[in-house]
Amino acid sequence: MQKATAEPQTPEVPFLVRQHLSKHGIQPETGPTGVKHMHAEVTLLRDTFGMVQVFFRSDTLLDLEKIHRQTGRKLEPLATPDIDRIKAKLSVNTLPAFDDLVDAETYIDQRLFSAEDFFVHSGNSDRLIRVRSGAELKHKDSTRIFDLCVDLPEPLPDIDDLGVFEHDRNEIYRAVTSFTALRIRQRLSETLEIPPLSETAQAIIRLRADPDADITKLSRIVEKDPSLAAQVVSWASSSYYAAPGSIKSVQDAIVRVLGYDLVMNLALGLALGKTLEMPDDQPEGFSSYWTRAVFVAATCGALLAKIPREFRPGFGLVYLTGLLHNFGYLILAHAFRPHFSATCRMMETNRHLPHQHIEQHLLGITGDQIAASLLHYWKMPNEVCLGIRYQIEPHYQGAHSDHAQLVYLANHLLQKHGLLPGLAHEFDPAVYDYLHLSPDDVEDAMNEIFEAKDQLAVIVQGLES
User: Fold this and answer.
1) In this predicted structure, what is the pLDDT of residue 443?
2) Is 311 in the same domain as 459?
3) Do 94 and 173 share a domain, yes or no?
4) Are 106 and 169 part of one and the same domain?
5) Is 130 helix (H, G, I), strand (E, B) or coil?
6) How far apart, in whole angstroms, are the C-alpha atoms of residue 62 and residue 147?
């Protein structure tokens, strides 16, 4: 950690924040972000009585229901454009947890107020400011201290072999029955009331296990579904693949541009993604399902190419894992429909956390667990199922951990480089060693994705239309 050498003139800290530090006699000792340490988060909320800013520990989850019980106010997250206007007015890109910077009533969670020696955002996304105690955040008499947060859920258990799917199936039954009056049923798809797989998806899954599978069989399956066929041809025709000449058929797309493996997994990912409707509600300020699916899949592919050949898993299943990594989002929106809006609002309230923590807190299960179990039930490859299930567990070292770690790394890099909206979450660089990647190789891969972002956006637009 680097210490400032002079008066509060640290160039990394915006002027208004330096002015505040000087006013209250706080020395601007700063440290970089991306290092694992506890810091103060700021969330802006609003109701008919006005705006409230809440300060709380980054290693906790801010609970809207606890706020309602403690204060009697039914507060909801401030919209992203309103937050951006406040940041612009202060000339900051992160919000420091000092109660006299923003014109709003302030609540401080008691866990943060009693903490010692932690960090707050400096206004510059690359720097944090060290403070000695929670009392340094409170300068207004009107600021109130409440119990507003809960502990983060425990990490998902790392279960050996494939017993993980039996464990998760029991967890799904428990979660479903806690929210419904239905009896537990034997079939996972019935328990979740998921629509049956489309004929196309079933045919592709059967083809995966067919020892005589070939381009002609795959082409016939895809061509029977006009929407899917149009997507595959469009994908192959996009400037992202820079195919010479025009692509006239699915077989043309397979032979000349995409290859059998990619079309097989692409068609399967698209068919499964269209099994469920996009939800009417969604967390504001987060990327859409297909945006995240396409960008994560493409990034997983770009990262994979940088892994030494002797350690490199197969491209097709890595790409499919990326394409389906957020499938649990659609399942939650469908199977837990009455509770999905609450999940969205809590995601907006806790932008510093992966959405899986919010799902675990509210529902007792994550979308990743449900998706992995359902895909396993549909006889999808274990590489995909386990890659999805453990995608936020960087230290998972069980079967097919490389698939999970590639999705983890891809999500982090896309947010870090601003290619997906949202805050970059706490990141564990140990995945570089696990995947046999160097940071330089990773930056090369991200440069490729950044250069292709417009072409990828066109692909997304075609899927969402």
Assistant:
1) 92
2) yes
3) no
4) no
5) strand
6) 10
Given this model, what pLDDT does residue 8 score?
40
Q: How far apart are CA 268 and CA 200, in angstroms?
A: 8
Residues 143 and 175 in one domain: no
For the entire predicted model, the pTM comes to: 0.85
Q: In the block, which residue shows the tokens 């696990």?
A: 434
CB neighbour list of residue 397: distance below 8 Å, 6 or more residues apart: 158, 434
Q: Which residue in the block uniquely carries the two structure tokens 């951006």? A: 84
Tell me 146's DSSP state: E
Q: How many domains does the chain have?
A: 2
138 and 190 both lie in a single domain: no
- Indicate the DSSP class of residue 59: T
Helices and strands in the chain, H and E counts:
22, 10
Can you read off the two tokens belonging to residue 64? 């809207």
Segment 366-387 mean pLDDT: 90
Task: Tell whether the model's pLDDT for residue 221 goes beyond 70.
Answer: yes
Dihedral pair phi/psi, residue 305, rounded to 5°: -65, -20
Phi, psi of 31 (to 5 degrees): -145, 160
- CATH code assigned at 64: 3.90.960.10
Boundaries of domain holding 396 = 163-195+276-464
In a domain, 203, yes or no: no
Alpha carbon separation from 90 to 76, 124, 244, 448 (Å, rounded): 22, 11, 50, 34
Is the same domain home to 293 and 425? yes
Cα(359)–Cα(350) distance, integer angstroms: 12
Largest CA distance in the chain: 76
pLDDT band of residue 285 (cuts 50, 70, 90) is confident
User: At residue 420, what are phi and psi to the nearest 5 degrees?
Assistant: -125, 140
**Six-digit token string for 390:** 């453990």
Task: Report whether pLDDT(189) > 70.
Answer: no
Give the strand pairing for 149-151 and 60-62. Answer: antiparallel
Q: How far is CA 454 from CA 226, 236, 343, 366, 462, in A?
A: 25, 15, 30, 32, 13
Contacts 24+ apart (CB under 8 A), 224-231: 224/199, 224/200, 225/198, 225/200, 225/271, 227/274, 228/200, 228/267, 228/270, 228/271, 231/270, 231/462, 231/463
My answer on whether 54 and 174 are in the same domain is no
Residues 392, 296: contact at Cβ < 8 Å?
no
Phi, psi of 426 (to 5 degrees): -55, 135
User: Last residue of some domain: 151, 186, 213?
Assistant: 151
SS (H, E, C) 130-159: EEEEHHHHCCCCCCEEECCEEECCCCCCCC
